[in-house]
Every structure is written in C-alpha cells, then in structure tokens.
C-alpha cells in the first residue's frame, strides 16, 4: 500500500476532527514526541525529514512546517507515519487522536500556506470497491488524502492488476504539495482529512473487474459548488432566494454588533464565535471556537471585555480551553460555560470558579424555567439534565443515549440545544443533518427540521448548529453548511430561508459558517457568523 491507495473503504460516519486547531504550534520534534511510542525510530526519521525537506520555502513555510509535509510522504514500512496517522483518523475512538493534535496543527498550518488547486486529481486502490459507490451518494474520507494530478502516476501504482478501482476527483480545495514531498515527481495534491464528496454517477465497470469512480469534492460544507455544476449552482441559488417566504420578518441586511474587525484576539475582534447569549439589556456573551475566554459586548459597545478566562489555554480553574457555549443563570447571575477541550461545565461568578460537571464532552447548554441544566455530549451522542445545585451525579438522559446512529432514539454528534416551556428538548443532530425534538420523558425523538440527507434543498440541512424556538413553536436553525438560517413551522415538509442564503461572503446579507442563534426581547435575531468573526443582528420588521 502507498499514500495514493490508502483509502477508507468503510463508509463510517465519524465525528469530525477539529480539536487540533487550538493546539499550540510547536517544533516538529515536540509535535511528534507524544507518538514516539507508536513509531519505532521516529526521531531518526524526523532528522531525515528536516535535512531533506524543501527549505527555505518560497511559500513562507518554516523549517518545521516543511518537514511536517516531507515526513508525511516518507515510506519506511508498516510504521510509516502516514499509515499510523490515517489508521487513527479512521478509528471510531476519537480520543486516540489527541496525541496527534500538535502534529496535525503543524501540518495544517503548513498546508494553509501552500497554493490551493481546483482541478481533476486521481487516486487508486487494488480492490474492486467501485461497485459500492452509487450516484449522488455522499461520502467522507476521514484520513488525509494523497492524490496525483497525473493519472499515469496512479496507473503506475496499480499496474495491470485486475479488480482495481481508480478515482477521478474534481478537487475544489486541494493543496499542491509537489516540491515538498520525498517523491517530487508524483505531482501530489493533498485533500484534507474529513473531506466530503458526492458521487457523480454510478461507477464505470471494465470487463477485467476494474472500476472508475467519479467524485466531486464538496466545497467547505457547501455541497453545491463544483467544477461541473457552476451554472446549475447559479440557478439553484436564485431559486432558493426567491423561495423565501413573503412573510419574512427581518431586514435582510444585518448590523454587526460584535467583532467584524477581522480574526484576532484584540478586544474589538472575535475568533470563530460559536455560542452566544443575549441578556435582557441586550448585552452579548460570546464563546469562541479558537479562544480561551468568554467576552461580553455591552449594548452598542465598540469592543468587548473579557469576563471569564483570558489566562491562556489550560485546565486550571482560572483558564478556559475552547469554550463552545455560554449561558447566564438568571437566579445567581453566574456564567455557565461548556468547555469542550477540558471536558467540563464550569461556573464563573465574580471571578470565582466552580466545576459543575466533569468528564463530559460538552458542546451545547440550555437551562429551563425551573433551573434544570441541560448539556449535550458530542461523543456519547446524548443530552443529559441536571437539577440545580445537584451536579454530583450522572444526570438524567433526556435525548439520545442509545449509541451513535440515525434512528429516532439516537443522535450523532449533537451540538446546540434548546429547551421550551414544556421541557421539550430540541437538538441539532449535526451529523444526521436534522433537528430532533424530544418531549419530556420521551423514549425517542421526532424529526422537526431536515432529516432528508445532506443537502441545500429547502427540506434539507447541512451541518445544523444553533437552534432556537419562538413562542409560536417555529424552529430556527443555523444551517451552517448552506450559510443560512432556516425557519421550520410545525408539520411543514420543508423550511424557509429567513436570513442569509446568499452565498459565501462578508456582506451584510451574507453568512459564512453560522453557529449560535439568539433573540432579544424585541425579537431581533442574532447570529454568530463564525467564519466572518462577527455577531450579526437582523432587525425585526414591525
């Protein structure tokens, strides 16, 4: 096996890998120190990589960044780095990946500096797996994917073997690593881990038992932009915009009320905001993806102020590490924070901290009118409820808890949650592309948004995130991959676009990676526009 044939054939549905983004950027020696026990003589191969890698780099890569690419392409046997890493990336136990995060951070930083390519690339494997690919099927390759821009390179690896499968891939955001690899003549293009594809058509089978599979890369969670369908996309986008209800209640051009000054850590900036909370004074509390703090933006303020954390990434009581959500307890006025990377829910009150719940891969938070706290667990695929001030127990499962899956009693990577007046729990079932409603004491949920596969039609969702419900029971969903916010009314077969849905961009009517949602007491809609590093306020039309 070689890099070009190291292909995931399992069609597993796994949790995406993103924790490495908050890892500290270190030297390649430090980055791989934690995996030395998995790879014999690894320090020796690191020295080889640093000696022979492409440095200085015309693309601005550091010596360590260049070496991280070179060592990935080296071959030295069964314990070759890329084989061990890719096996781990395909493993269902995502906790095994934590030791790889420093290297993945270094490797990903290097790729970011290299040119992106939009062209046809090739892969191949000596196995007749092509018959398993069907038209319009959505697949994910969880490992790092080495491709070649030359079909002859792939033919050379496959030889005259029968029962092989060749992949023709329309790449959208490939990274050209040719010139940085051990084998410079292989014209290598890398597609990042977790890249999604749509199968263009049923596999072409040859008389000798070989197959040709045509894949189209799904561009950054937005499944309509491809080399082959740009004209169709223009038509589809127009249809989506014109399909918006004439009863839309919000101005389509938003006002930026927090951030909007580029990505960064200055007080007038945000860094991939996720969860947001709006209090009765219209103050905005923001939890950020790649941050170590919670920031409060007072009403009409030009910059925020750090109210929790801000003392560097870590697991001390006064530190935060990748907070995903924040709520304010109306009784104690304390701040409750979901810390995904530290696997804990922590309470801050006047700079005093208390861990409420530990050893939980928390993501979403909600509190009902009775003071019960609800927390979604990304890896256990469940939502649990705790009684106020009684956190020294395992809580009660109120949604999911039956393993990963897409049945009505299951969840897959649950994210944001919302609890209504009747204690029904709404869950963004992210990797099932749906929102589920679990009534109080129910043994299974019902699909209330999406549930028709991954896509951009009005009855579909693409990686739903924030979810809130208004007084009429209408459900609002941050449809992250489709860059829009959808409204789903009771018993309707499809939703309607209420804001966004105007393509990728940073204009006032555009969103890029919407995450958390919230209303203020006037009904204005707030959206954490994550990839634009800002909070957008869409004013209600009275």
Automatic annotation (TrEMBL):
> Where do the NHL repeats start and stop?
452-485, 505-541
An MF annotation (GO) of this entry: NAD+-protein-arginine ADP-ribosyltransferase activity
Please give the catalytic activity noted in the UniProt record: L-arginyl-[protein] + NAD(+) = N(omega)-(ADP-D-ribosyl)-L-arginyl-[protein] + nicotinamide + H(+)
Q: CDD domains from the entry?
A: NHL
The record's annotation in InterPro entries points to: 6-blade_b-propeller_TolB-like, ART, NHL_repeat
Q: Which domain of life is it from?
A: Eukaryota
Which controlled-vocabulary keywords does the entry list?
A: Glycoprotein, Glycosyltransferase, NAD, NADP, Nucleotidyltransferase, Repeat, Signal, Transferase
Q: Is Disulfide bond tagged as a keyword?
A: no
Q: Under which EC number(s) is this enzyme classified? A: 2.4.2.31
Q: Main EC class of this protein?
A: transferase
Question: What are the GO cellular component annotations?
Answer: extracellular region
Mind telling me which Pfam families this protein's record contains? ART, NHL
List, alphabetically, the Gene3D superfamilies matched: 2.40.10.500, TolB, C-terminal domain, Toxin ADP-ribosyltransferase, Chain A, domain 1
Please give the family membership noted in the entry: Belongs to the Arg-specific ADP-ribosyltransferase family.
Q: What is this protein called?
A: NAD(P)(+)--arginine ADP-ribosyltransferase
């Amino acid at each position: 096996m070689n890099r070009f044939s190291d292909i995931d054939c399992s069609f597993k549905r796994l949790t995406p890998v993103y924790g490495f983004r908050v890892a500290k950027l270190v030297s390649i020696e430090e980055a791989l120190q934690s995996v030395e026990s998995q790879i014999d003589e690894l320090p020796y191969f690191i020295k080889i990589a640093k000696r022979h890698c492409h440095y200085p780099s015309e693309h601005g890569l550091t010596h360590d960044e260049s070496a991280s690419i070179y060592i990935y392409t080296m071959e030295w046997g069964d314990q070759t780095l890329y084989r061990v890493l890719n096996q781990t990336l395909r493993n269902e136990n995502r906790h095994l990946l934590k030791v790889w995060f420093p290297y993945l951070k270094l490797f990903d930083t290097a790729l970011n500096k290299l040119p992106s390519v939009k062209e046809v690339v090739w892969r191949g494997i000596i196995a007749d797996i092509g018959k398993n690919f069907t038209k319009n099927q959505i697949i994910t390759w969880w490992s790092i994917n080495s491709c070649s821009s030359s079909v002859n390179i792939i033919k050379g690896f496959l030889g005259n073997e029968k029962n092989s499968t060749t992949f023709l891939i329309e790449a959208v955001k490939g990274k050209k690593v040719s010139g940085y690899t051990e084998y410079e003549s292989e014209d290598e293009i890398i597609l990042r881990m977790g890249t999604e594809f749509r199968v263009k058509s049923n596999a072409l089978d040859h008389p000798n038992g070989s197959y040709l599979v045509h894949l189209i890369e799904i561009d950054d969670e937005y499944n309509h932009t491809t080399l082959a369908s740009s004209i169709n996309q223009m038509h589809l986008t127009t249809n989506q915009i014109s399909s918006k209800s004439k009863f839309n209640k919000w101005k389509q051009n938003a006002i930026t009320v927090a951030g909007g000054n580029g990505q960064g850590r200055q007080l007038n900036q945000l860094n991939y905001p996720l969860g947001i909370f709006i209090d009765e004074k219209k103050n905005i509390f923001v939890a950020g993806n790649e941050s170590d703090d919670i920031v409060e933006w007072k009403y009409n303020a030009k910059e925020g102020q750090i109210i929790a954390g801000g003392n560097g990434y870590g697991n001390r009581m006064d530190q935060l590490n990748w907070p995903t959500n924040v709520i304010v307890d109306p009784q104690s006025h304390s701040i409750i924070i979901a810390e995904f990377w530290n696997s804990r829910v922590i309470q801050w009150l006047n700079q005093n901290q208390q861990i409420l719940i530990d050893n939980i891969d928390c993501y979403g938070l909600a509190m009902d009118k009775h003071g019960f706290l609800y927390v979604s667990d990304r890896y256990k695929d469940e939502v649990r409820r705790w009684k106020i001030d009684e956190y020294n127990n395992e809580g009660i499962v109120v949604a999911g808890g039956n393993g990963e899956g897409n049945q009505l009693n299951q969840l897959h990577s649950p994210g944001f949650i919302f609890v209504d007046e009747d204690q029904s729990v709404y869950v963004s079932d992210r990797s099932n592309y749906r929102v589920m409603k679990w009534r109080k004491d129910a043994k299974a949920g019902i699909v209330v948004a999406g549930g028709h596969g991954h896509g951009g039609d009005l009855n579909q969702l693409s990686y739903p995130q924030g979810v809130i419900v208004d007084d009429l029971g209408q459900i609002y969903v941050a449809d992250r991959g489709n860059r829009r916010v959808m409204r789903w009314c009771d018993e309707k077969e499809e939703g309607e676009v209420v804001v966004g849905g105007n393509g990728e961009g940073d204009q006032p009517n555009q969103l890029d990676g919407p995450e958390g949602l919230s209303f203020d007491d006037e009904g204005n809609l707030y959206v954490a526009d994550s990839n634009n590093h800002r909070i957008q306020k869409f004013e209600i039309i009275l």
